[in-house]
Specification:
179 residues, alpha/beta, 17% strand
Length: 179
Amino acid sequence: SEIVFTGGATEANNAVIRFLAEQLPAENGLAISPFEHPSVTEAARYFFPDRVQVLKATRDGSIDLAHLDVVLKDGQLGALFLMAVNNETGVIQPWQNVARSCHQSGVLFHCDASQWFGKCPDGEFGHCDFLVGCGHKFGGPKGVGFLALSSNTQGFHSQYGGGQESGKRGGTENVPSII
């Protein structure tokens, strides 16, 4: 009930941002890291015009935690997006610390962990409200991914048109690829 299979991480990232655009109050925006995948940055700018804040990074390519604290104290964020591992540099982000800070501030946390799975030790992904992965990054085929949802995401749906995925994503699942 917590996992929604998708056609990949891009679909999952877009679905989360569209869901947040429907659910968050109009005054709430999104914060994204400066190194998010285009499936996050472009969807965020489309669904949250003038309400996307790009976080700062340190010289080593990590998210700037001091700047993050300032942004979280502002009280205008509805959600924050931070990938677990940068897909271009390989820098492992302090996503667990960021997730805890978000929850303490009442901000939803989204983590694209596509580059994490199969390469890094098990993580405590239970801290994520939205967790995204894609099969081809850890031995599966292209064209299949997943979105794990926390209990903070009641009412989530990515597309209408069927009762598949417990009503969270209409359409026939790609069972051979999922397996």
